[in-house]
């Protein structure tokens, strides 16, 4: 077997100290000494070990106590973004809850492209975390393979499926969308505009609402996908684009409170009153939503609770404790305020 074949085979699983020892023709104890206390090992032996490390792809765990206990006390937390506050509370809750259990959080921002998530998580795993938190349920098959081969606890958050990679806590974005559509169904509105960020979960919510509203043939529905990050400026620009040519809407439904805030600002700049002339709805119940003027009608999810529960599930599984429910639907609630 040539070296390239050995490297390719070792990609199928994490190389072990025993693999290095076999490749080097040495005992595992000698390999361990060479990696952890090279001063007591001959230079020629160290060279053999390092050559074997390169061939096998073995990643020595140099974190304190790691080689002895197989624990790093490190949890990798992967989120797409934190620049619009959507995930900030959840991340903070995870960090606080993990600290109480003696773990440290390694936060990584991966964006929304599945391939980027795969590459970055593979790099994170080189740090030998004890567990990992992933945002959402849609991952590449390569990422799933990497995680399964890593053989560490995983919690997926902010989505819902009966078949998670390991454990999950979240909510149904489709049901959120359905609830939004049902809320507007009996208001007598006929002209609806949807401003939606190009994010898979946001699109599911949008489609869920539209599926309900299309139940009445008189409803007119227009959709506009916007770029990320979906900030206030994007919300203002989106409303200008939608209303070009003197179009009018009874309600504008946004995929985030931040977009909704921008829409409200632009509507008022154009002389429209919210909600008298146009209703506006957001999503996530961010910390400014209740204090905006008008206060933003939105959908609230327990962002803090998701983080607390995710951290607890991971720590319990790492420590060999029973995890009561591997899949938790934390639910959602409509928060009716002034804007709709």
SSE layout and pairings?
Layout: H1 3-10, H2 17-24, H3 28-36, H4 43-56, H5 66-69, E1 74-79, H6 88-100, E2 104-109, H7 114-125, E3 131-135, H8 141-150, E4 154-157, E5 167-170, H9 173-185, E6 191-197, H10 200-213, E7 220-226, H11 232-242, E8 251-254, H12 257-269, E9 279-281, E10 298-300, H13 303-318, E11 327-329, E12 333-335
Parallel strand pairs: 1-2, 1-3, 3-4, 4-5, 5-11, 6-7, 6-8, 8-9
Antiparallel strand pairs: 10-12
Output the number of helix runs: 13
Mean pLDDT across the residues is 90
SSE order, as H and E?
A: HHHHHEHEHEHEEHEHEHEHEEHEE
**Unreliable runs, pLDDT <50, ≥5 residues?**
4-12, 62-69
Distance N to C terminus: 68 Å
Taking all Cα atoms into account, the compactness measure Rg is: 25 Å
Commentary on this structure:
The protein is of the alpha/beta class and 340 residues long. It is 43% helix and 16% strand. It has a 6-stranded parallel beta sheet, sandwiched between helices. Strands 7-6-8-9 form a 4-stranded parallel beta sheet, with helices on both faces. The chain starts with a helix and ends in a 5-residue tail after the last strand. Residues 4-12 and 62-69 have low confidence and may be disordered.
What is this entry, summarized?
The protein is built from 13 helices and twelve strands. With 340 residues, it is α/β, with parallel strands linked by helices. The protein starts with a helix and ends in a 5-residue tail after the last strand.
Give the tags:
single chain; 340 residues; alpha/beta; 6-stranded parallel beta sheet; 4-stranded parallel beta sheet; 13 helices; 43% helix; 16% strand
